Amino acid sequence: MKLAVLLAVASCSFGQLTGTVRDSVSKLPVAGVRIHATQTTVESTATGEFALDDLKPGKYLVFFNRDGYEHGRAAVEVTPDGGPVTLEI
């Protein structure tokens, strides 16, 4: 007896959430901010830039914090061809 197995592979495109974290008063970039979405956490660079890769397109609530600042959160939408966002802390 032969067993036939059919595998279905779903095509799914992923997006990236990129942007810059800025001080809400001075508008200068802020380094060392932890940005968290889903199961992924990254830290902003010396120029305040960050990138969260391999996110499925959709709406996310992003949390961000750094010592000496109030914690922040922002609702964002990730699309395969989306542009950068600015987070203010």
Report what the structure shows.
The chain contains no helices and seven strands. It has strands at 15-22, 34-37, 40-43, 49-55, 58-65, 72-78, 85-88. It is mainly β. It is globular, with a radius of gyration of 18 Å. Strands 3-2-5-6 form a four-stranded antiparallel β-sheet, with no helix packed on it. Strands 4-1-7 form a three-stranded mixed β-sheet, with no helix packed on it.
Blueprint of the fold:
Elements: E1 15-22, E2 34-37, E3 40-43, E4 49-55, E5 58-65, E6 72-78, E7 85-88
Parallel strand pairs: 1-7
Antiparallel strand pairs: 1-4, 2-3, 2-5, 5-6
User: What is the CA-atom radius of gyration, in angstroms?
Assistant: 18 Å
N-to-C span: 65 Å
Largest sheet: 4 strands, antiparallel
Number of structural units classed as domains: 1
Give the overall form.
globular
**Number of contiguous helices:** 0
